[in-house]
Automatic annotation (TrEMBL):
<keyword id="KW-0472">Membrane</keyword>
<keyword id="KW-1133">Transmembrane helix</keyword>
<keyword id="KW-0812">Transmembrane</keyword>
<feature type="compositionally biased region" description="Basic and acidic residues">
    <location>
        <begin position="156"/>
        <end position="169"/>
    </location>
</feature>
<feature type="transmembrane region" description="Helical">
    <location>
        <begin position="48"/>
        <end position="69"/>
    </location>
</feature>
<feature type="region of interest" description="Disordered">
    <location>
        <begin position="149"/>
        <end position="169"/>
    </location>
</feature>
<protein>
    <recommendedName>
        <fullName>CU044_5270 family protein</fullName>
    </recommendedName>
</protein>
Amino acid sequence: MDELTIVAEAFDEGGPSALEAADGRRRLEELMRPAVPEPRRRRWRPRLGVGLGLVAAATAAVLATASLGDGEGTPALSKERAAEQHVRARTFLLAAATRLESGTKPNPWTPPKPGRYWRQRTLRGQAWHVVSGGYVIYTEVRSDAWQPGTGQGRGHFAEKAEPVGPRTPEDVAAWRKAGSPTRWRAQADGDRLDLARDAAPPEPHRPVYILDPDTEPPSVPSRIATGADPAAFVAMARRDAGFVDGRANELMAGARYIGDKLAAPKSRAAVLRMLAGLSGIRSIGTVRDACGRTGIGLAAPWVERDDGSVVEYQLVLDPDTDNVLGDQMILKKPGKSGMRPGLRFDYTCTLTEGWTNETPH
């Protein structure tokens, strides 16, 4: 099921009206260029500690999850095509906001009557290019965060680093050809470092909450209180720090807020409407997240990184619940990264989230 079918089912209108489509095209003529890199260039650090990131002998299903996209040489979108994708994104986001408020789809929000803990499990990953081997390996970390429901007492945060190694069939083949090494000299975003199969990733991982991951996460009662006020919630989303430039930054920041299930539906819906008002955001149809789940992809204009590579930030939403499944950076042009276009460079998946009365384990 694609996003137009979803919207048609929600409104029984078969998609956006001619007036809305024309409005979208006019907006994009003025506010958006085709999908080319944003003009600002800012060094983008690996997002292993952000919001909304296997063994070489993994199954084919797992191996296939790290590579997707259009590849090198993909022509820039025409203004007409970009306008069409923008209208689809805007229509989908507005419909999702309406569904969230009306409860016409499964409502993920739990009223503010906390259990013992609010628990969130995530998976985050980062691609690294092996300098001498010409293939790509990944670091991955599974995080398990338990926040006290009352805001009192100690929380619990655990991490498990998955074995470092290749994920795609092409990279597995190249790794085997190189003798199946377990130590590598690798690079990403201009940085070079030594990685080992069973070593912890080079950067700390933290739970994904609505604030900057380098600060302490707010308590559960604080998150519920903030999420009860749509205006305050949107204001926080607008000023939240991001990790890339331009519209990609705004979509990434907004994703953290629509993904906060402790917030009231009306507040999350307000952020969805804020995102619907952004120029340059496009609906790219059905995509898979890094865990192999299928969702509706929303993409921002491409971002050029310091090594000359170009990436596309994608937010992946569950078509059945409008929940955030995860986000990812897809490499569009390799620059000096040494990686092939279409590669999933960086990603985060939300695995489970909700109240629990279990004891942290």
